[in-house]
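Format notes (please read before filing issues)

Several people have asked whether sequences and C-alpha cells are stored in separate files. They are not. Every record keeps both together, in the order shown below: the sequence lines, then the C-alpha cell lines. Line labels are part of the format and must not be stripped during preprocessing.
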Amino acid sequence: MTHSLQDLQQPAVSSKVFIQRDYSSGTICKFHTKFPSELESRLDKQLFEETIQTLNNLYAEAEKLGGKSYLEGCLACLTAYTIFLCMETHYEKVLKKIARYIKDQNEKTYAPRGLLLTDPIERGLRVVEITIFEDRSIGSGR
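Then the structure lines:
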C-alpha cells in the first residue's frame, strides 16, 4: 500500500525512530548513518544512508565559513544587525534548502512507505526523527 503526505496527517503512529547526532568529529552538525533495524521492512538501507549523508552535507555547507559569512558579519556590525531585517543569512538560506529537501524526500520516498521524516531543526538539531505509521493494510482488527 502506498501513502501520500495527506494520508499521513491522521493515521495512528506505530513508533518513532531517532537518529542521534554524531559528535565524533566535534560539534559540527552531523548525524549517524547507522541503519536502524526498525526501518528494515519499510526502507532500503541505501536510501536511508543517502538521505542522512545529504543532510550531513547540507549542514556542513550551512556551517562553512567563507568570505560571504565574514561579509555578512561585518555588515551586521556596521548596521547594528538591522541588515538582517531585509536580508537572509547564508545559514538561513541553507536551512530553507534543507526543509525543501526533507519535504521532497517525504513526498517521494518516505510517505509512500508509511514513514515521515521530521526536520532536525524542529528537534533542536539533536536528532533526525522518523515516524513510522501503522500500516492499515495489514489487518485493522484494533
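For reference, the curators noted about this record: The longest strand covers residues 13-20. The helical segments are 45-63, 67-78, 90-110.
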